[in-house]
Structure prediction request, 271 residues.
Amino acid sequence: MGILGMMKEMKSKMAAGGHVIEFPDGHWSSAKFIDGNIMLDALVKHLLGLIHTGMTDAGEVLEGIAQLETADGEGWMKTWSAMGDRLKRRAEESEEKQKLVSASSRDKHVKSHDNFLTGIRVSFDMKYEQYITKQFQRYHWFDYVSSSSMMHRIIKMDFSQCCNKYVDDLVKSHMKALIESYNDLLVEKDKYTDRMAEYKDMLYERFMRIISNCPMGAELFVHVSTNYKQLQTIYYQRQHHKLKEDYQAFFDMVESLPYAKELIICKDEDQ
Prediction:
């Protein structure tokens, strides 16, 4: 039984003194919120699990389920988009009445009615330098789904082609020499058949020299999964960061997303 069926039984169960919602396995996650679509049901539970972080609101999630017309991706998007439109109109009406706390979706410093943004998922590919990855790892809902592995790719990388413009040619040449030294030793493996322990130690030392001297400006690719709420946080927290070129490219991407101005940036033209 989905949440709509549960709601229909609420009155009779409450009158009888029983539980409003049954939990088959004794845990809230065993309840069914959406019938017929296991992925959407799991997504609802994921959103409810984020309540303690302040990234979702129980009322908004349950209202979204109640308004869902079809249990599929299109129905999900229509429902959350409609909720976003309602909250936007509510904020604009409050702003006109000078109720600025209620209208806080127009103020980048105060967000009280935008938890639905966590339901708008975004996936994209990103080329990144080594120094930027630690910046993004600070955010809980900015997930690296798949990425190039530095550990596996570094002995095949051409550092004359895979670095940003700030890496010196001397550094690139040094990396090339270290990689060539490592690969030369790989070819000579047969010469060490009776000294394999020594060979492995030499191979390890040369690999560690490569990975330890790798410039922070070396570039790799990653596939990212996140949501509008997390992008909003990053957008405003990093506006004046020292890494202005990297973040400006990121900001440009965010601003190009559908309804970014209304839902993520929340800023008028004259602000």
Notes: The mean pLDDT is 82. The beta strands are 121-129, 143-147, 219-227. Residues 120-148+218-265 form one domain. Residues 73-96 form the longest helix (24 residues).
